[in-house]
Amino acid sequence: MTTINDPPVVAEVTDLYLKYEEALCNNNLEVMDSLFWDAPEVVRFGITENLYGSDEIRNFRQNRPNPKIEREISNLKVLTFGKDAATVTLEFRRIINGVERFGRQSQTWYRFTEGWKVVSAHVSLLPV
After folding, report:
1. Would you call 82 helix, strand, or coil by DSSP?
2. What pLDDT sits at residue 58?
3. Do residues 68 and 27 touch, judged by C-beta distance below 8 A?
4. Could you say which residues form the signal peptide (predicted)?
5. Mean pLDDT, to the nearest integer, of 20-33?
6. Confidence band (pLDDT; 50, 70, 90) for 107?
7. Apex CA 113: angle with CA 122 and CA 16, to 5°?
8. In this structure, are residues 106 and 121 in contact, taking their beta carbons and an 8 Å threshold?
9. Using CA atoms, how far apart are residues 77 and 68, in angstroms rounded to an integer?
10. Which residues, 6 or more positions from 124, have their beta carbon under 8 angstroms from its beta carbon?
11. What is the mean pLDDT of residues 92-121?
12. How far apart are CA 14 and CA 101, in angstroms?
C-alpha cells in the first residue's frame, strides 16, 4: 500500500520547493534548472507560454523580460505518494504593472536516482 504524506518525504519536498521559490524570486537560473527534469518530456505551462522540454524552459528563463519575481505565497500544500512522487500547489500574490494580481501554481515532482525533479509545472493568474 502506498503511504500518503509520509512526514520525512513531505519535509524533503517542501524544502526543495522553498529552494525553488527562492531561486525563482532571485532569478537563480542554475538552481531552477537543477530542480527541473532535464528531458524533452518535461512541461511548464506559464502565464503566457506553453513550454515543452527542458531546452524551451531554459531558453524562456534566460530571456524573461522581468527576471526578478517578487511575490507572496500562501496555501502551500505538499502531497506525497510513497517515497518517489509528489505534488506541490500554492497560491500567490504579485504586483504586476502596479496592479495586485493573484495566481496559482502547481508542480509534479518525481524522485529519480539523481534526486527530486519537477516533471510538470503550471502557473496561472486569476482574472482581474
Report:
1. coil
2. 97
3. yes
4. none
5. 96
6. very high
7. 45
8. yes
9. 24
10. 45, 47, 103, 104, 105
11. 96
12. 24
C-alpha cell at 16: 526543495
Which pLDDT value is given to residue 1?
82
Per the prediction, the chain carries an average pLDDT of 96
Tell me the longest C-alpha to C-alpha distance in the chain.
50
| CATH numbers and ranges of domains, the chain | 7-125 (3.10.450.50)
Residue the block writes with cell 504586476: 96
pLDDT band at 128 (very low <50, low <70, confident <90, very high): confident
| 48 DSSP 8-state letter | S
**pTM for the complete prediction?**
0.94
Q: Which residues of 55-70 are buried (b: 16+ CB within 10 A; e: fewer)?
A: ebbbeebeeeeeeeee
